[in-house]
Amino acid sequence: MLACIRGAGDLASGIAVRLFRSNFKIIMLDIENPTTVRRTVSFSEAVRLGKTFVEDIVAYRAENFSEALEIANKNSVAVLVDPDGSVIKNLAPDVLIDAIIAKKNLGTKINDAPIVIGVGPGFTAGLDCHAVIETRRGHTLGRAFYKKGAKAIKNTGVPGNIGGYSVERVLRAPCDGVITPVKEIGDIVKAGEIAATVDNTPLYCTIDGMLRGMLAPGVKVFEGMKSGDIDPRGAEVDYLKVSDKALSIAGGVLEAILHFHENN
Asked: Would you give the DSSP letter of residue 235?
């Protein structure tokens, strides 16, 4: 089966990893200048670098839908710049998964593919997709909702609690400008150290821990934009592995695909 995934950030990439290992062919759609923070576990890096790995799976940037199909058929993940999803009709995927995580629907329709899945808030089962997958940490994380009218929990704007920290984990741009990382993803950092600069303004680490995410050099940011992520668990974190949250969401996606595939 061919699965097309809108978005190629860390949650979308966790879905891609699980589906790829379940023998799906994968084509991902992203923007020209991705604003991915957890770049070591995101196939979006293929847009910037041309080629990237998430765990042991390789992805290549494709320049058009025919090249994307060729890459996917050669047992690799294809990443294509297509923010509007204009190539979906040409790709004719068996499954379309909207994992942009925009907290709203950016154009996905229930008739875009035989099976359409919306990930996170902004989607309604039976209206713009066949199933909705919960993305909020808690008892329902990763659950698939099929009942007509079902939605994911509304976005609170508050990151999940890890090690007693929530909003403190997120590094936000101090001003508008272009970001230049000072620390590398995987570095152990202390509160008060400079993680990056935005033009000439320092972006300080907020807590002790491992820098698990950081925007790529040269990304344009605005004041308050999420630009990095610190995990307070520190050295025990494997920043090169797909997260437990991403795998849980991916499990819900796989369940939904099998649910509808078996019923068709």
From this structure: G
Enumerate residues 6+ apart whose C-beta is below 8 A from 191. Answer: 204, 205, 206, 207, 208
Structure letter (DSSP) for residue 13: H
Element holding 77 (H helix, E strand): strand 77-81
Confidence (pTM): 0.94
- Return the amino acid letter for 254: L
Which residues are CB-neighbours of 70 under 8 A, at least 6 positions away?
62, 78
Angle between helices 10-20 and 244-263 in degrees, nearest 10? 50
> What backbone phi and psi angles, to 5 degrees, belong to 72?
-60, -35
Q: What is the band of 154 on the pLDDT scale with cuts at 50, 70, 90?
A: confident
Residues found in the chain: 264
Confidence band for 167, pLDDT divided at 50, 70 and 90: confident
The number of C-alpha atoms within 13 Å of 204 and in the hemisphere containing its C-beta is 7
Beta pairing class for 51-54 and 57-62: antiparallel
Element counts in the chain: helices (H) and strands (E)? 5, 17
The strand pairing partners of 26, in sequence order, are 3
Place of tokens 């940037």: 61
Sign of CA dihedral 121, 105, 250, 83: negative
Q: Which domains does the chain have, with CATH numbers?
A: 2-155+244-263 (3.40.50), 167-232 (2.40.50.100)
As given in the structure block, the two tokens for residue 30 are: 């992203």
